[in-house]
From TrEMBL:
SMART domains: AAA (SM00382). The lineage of its organism: Bacteria, Bacillati, Actinomycetota, Actinomycetes, Streptosporangiales. It is found in: Cell membrane. It comes from Nonomuraea helvata. Residues 1-44 are annotated as: Disordered. Keywords: ATP-binding, Membrane, Nucleotide-binding, Transmembrane, Transmembrane helix. Its main location: membrane. Residues 77-363 form the ABC transmembrane type-1 domain. This is ABC transporter ATP-binding protein.
Length: 658
């Protein structure tokens, strides 16, 4: 059966409030319809894909250099000039040393020549000492600037994901973490790598010129020995990037265990169950597994780099023995020997530095792929070509045959759900754990898109609306509301910040919201009133440094945040009273009833007594609407609601009878 024909198709204009109705059952979408590739319609499945390209593309190189250029073009120019000067210094010093030795050997009585060559050598020495320091400072400043720019772009990219699906994808989270590291470091590493090539080119060319004069064969041998080193190091850096991707999940799990073992929330249970040792063991196991991968590669590097070092040593040693024998025969001067020795060391160290910088840049560039993927990924939720600004709610919201699962691997969380929230009314969603209540809220805020069916806001499909503007019309307290380590005023003012860089709510509005949520008295009694820093942990002995609130007080603050925005059409309260005592719950519901009077609201609560006065109760069971109607109608129906309500009511009667 096609699900679109089986479901309740009541529109927002004809809300089913007349009498209680057991909802019609729906069947799964047929295979002909076919699920989308990724749950929640994440447009670009490759963003979290588990594989990573192990080739640095020229485009990535261009983007990295472009980013560095934007962040600090004058720093790059200065760094380039310094790099070239640094490159020229050792070659100049080697020639000057040779000249000095030759002057001493053949023109020892020429004082002006001695002073000139000595002075030049001293200047080269000063340059050799000072240049690396200045160059390091410029590089560090360039790194800071590119790091800041890259971080801003990365998180602006992350903000473009308006849904939640990407944040539930572990591969995507690994990408963000690698993107954060590589995004900041790669551009300056690539600049350094590029300049290292130039620098090495100048140094090697200078020394090779010197070696060519002394012995062309030796010059060739030194050069050829460096090429396999470069190839081997590039291969190793590819393997290192691949290893880092493989150990990403292990690092993530380690972080989870580390946070768990130091979290104040987890501390109670961990101590009660004595579970600390268990989690420490798991954390260490993850670390051991990651270390084993690292060790494997370190050993390979040791073998390759040790072998190449041996080769360089053999070439250098052979060259020097030959030179000493040639000097004995009078074919070389003492200055030639000094020049040869410096040249061999100079070429080898210039090439080693080149290999080092280039492989580092190469490795960073491989990881830069993550940064590019995150910053250039398509938005996760389909954006309409011409998004419609959501109209002020006048008719209501309608769920029309909505099917949803969190991914194709997950079972259906909603199966053909249809119901309406008429304008100005309060609709309560009730049902057992896992029935799909919070999922409905998440779809209504458009954190995901339904796989089948539609959700209509005054007749307009949510998918045609701009998600930001839609959310500006909704005030919500989620089951897992946030506790911000900010002041009480800031905790409330965040409820009306919508894309701005500063909080703008006035003190009067903040206080009014706090009063509505019944938290004004508690906040006023804090050491600095609304300016008291609230924290989930103690900050030492200073009571004004941070105050710890109770769970119920935090929940009221979340409530104040939700009711702060005046222009909100819809108020969603997902378990708003779970952390409150019975008296507080009654008080909050009375206050909220006043607040809700002019607006539409969707309430979720397991305390059925708290929502029995809603205009309509929608009873969910296994992702389907099982019943709907007012409290009295549902009680008469004698179905699931009556059973749940009676069970709860029994708990409050001394005789245990309904
Ligand atoms: N992020 C998620 N990823 C995968 N499955 C999820 C996710 N969130 C919820 N589910 C599943 O969707 C189903 C409905 O969950 P939902 O949270 O909507 O239920 P609920 O009625 O709000 O439950 P409760 O009363 O316990 O809060 C459950 O089977 C749950 O396991």
């Amino acid at each position: 059966m096609n699900p679109t024909t089986s479901a309740d198709t009541a529109s927002a204009e004809t809300p089913p409030t007349g009498h209680a109705t057991p909802a019609p059952s729906s069947t799964e979408p047929t295979s002909a319809v076919g699920p989308p590739a990724v749950a929640g319609s994440t447009g670009d499945a490759s963003v979290g894909a588990a594989e990573v390209r192990m080739k640095a593309s020229p485009a990535a190189l261009g983007r990295a250099l472009g980013l560095a250029w934007q962040a600090g073009r004058w720093h790059i120019v200065a760094y380039a000039v310094l790099a070239l000067l640094e490159a020229a210094v050792p070659v100049t010093a080697a020639w000057l040393t040779k000249s000095a030795l030759d002057v001493v050997a053949h023109r020892a009585d020429d004082a002006s020549a001695l002073v000139a060559v000595g002075g030049a050598l001293a200047a080269a020495g000063v340059a050799a000492i000072a240049l690396p320091h200045v160059s390091r400072y410029v590089r560090q400043e360039l790194e800071r600037r590119t790091g800041r720019l890259a971080q801003d772009r990365l998180f602006a990219g992350v903000e473009r994901f308006t849904g939640l699906a990407r944040f539930e994808d572990p591969a995507f989270l690994d990408r963000i973490s690698l993107a954060h590291t590589s995004g900041g470091a790669t551009p300056s590493a690539v600049v350094a790598g590029t300049l290292a090539i130039c620098r090495a080119f100048v140094t090697v060319l200078g020394f090779l010129g010197a070696l060519l004069v002394v012995n062309p064969l030796l010059a060739g041998a030194v050069l050829v020995a460096a090429l396999p080193a470069l190839a081997a190091e590039l291969r190793l850096s590819r393997q290192r990037a691949s290893m880092m991707w493989r150990i990403g999940p292990m690092e993530r799990r380690q972080l989870f265990y580390r946070q768990l073992l130091t979290s104040v929330r987890a501390a109670k249970e961990l101590r009660l169950f004595g579970a600390g040792r268990y989690f420490r063991f798991r954390m260490n196991a993850e670390r051991a597994a990651a270390d084993s991968e690292r060790r494997h590669l370190d050993r390979r590097e040791l073998g390759v780099e040790g072998g190449l070092g041996l080769l360089s040593g053999v070439i250098a040693g052979a060259g020097l023995i030959w030179a000493l024998l040639a000097a004995r025969d009078g074919r070389l001067t003492a200055g030639d020997i000094a020049l040869l020795a410096t040249s061999i060391v100079g070429v080898q160290s210039a090439l080693a530095a080149l290999v080092n910088e280039v492989t580092m840049a190469h490795q960073q560039l491989l990881n830069f792929d993550h940064y590019l993927t995150v910053t250039s990924a398509e938005p996760d939720l389909r954006r309409p070509a011409r998004p419609v600004a959501p109209p002020a709610l006048r008719r209501g919201i309608e769920f029309r045959d909505v099917w949803f699962r969190y991914s194709p691997e997950h079972p259906w969380s909603l199966r053909g759900v249809s119901f309406t929230v008429p304008y100005g009314s309060a609709v309560a969603l009730v049902g057992r754990n896992g029935a799909g209540k919070s999922t409905i809220v998440k779809l209504l805020c458009r954190f995901y898109d339904p796989e089948r069916g539609t959700i209509l806001w005054d007749g307009v499909d949510l998918r045609d609306l701009d998600p930001g503007e839609l959310r500006a019309r909704i005030g919500a307290v989620f089951q897992d509301y946030m506790e911000y380590d900010l002041t009480a005023a800031e905790n409330i003012a965040i409820g009306d910040v919508a894309g701005r860089e500063r909080l703008t709510a006035s003190a009067a509005r903040i206080e009014a919201a706090a009063r509505k949520a019944g938290v004004h008295d508690a906040v006023s009694a804090l050491p600095r009133g609304y300016d008291t820093l609230l924290s989930r942990m103690f900050f030492g002995p200073d009571p004004e440094a941070g105050v710890v609130l109770s769970g119920g007080q935090w929940q009221r603050l979340a409530l104040a945040r939700a009711v702060l925005g005046d222009g909100r059409d819809l108020l969603i309260l997902d378990e708003p009273s779970s952390g409150l005592d019975a008296e507080a719950e009654a008080e909050i519901h009375n206050r909220l009833r006043e607040h809700r009077a002019e607006r539409t609201s969707l309430l979720i609560s397991h305390r059925l007594g708290a929502v029995r006065e809603a205009d309509v109760l929608v009873v969910l069971d296994g992702g389907q609407v099982a019943e709907r109607g007012s409290h009295d109608e549902l009680m008469r129906l004698d179905g699931l609601y009556r059973r749940l309500f009676t069970l709860q009511a029994q708990g409050y009667r001394p005789d245990g009878h309904p």
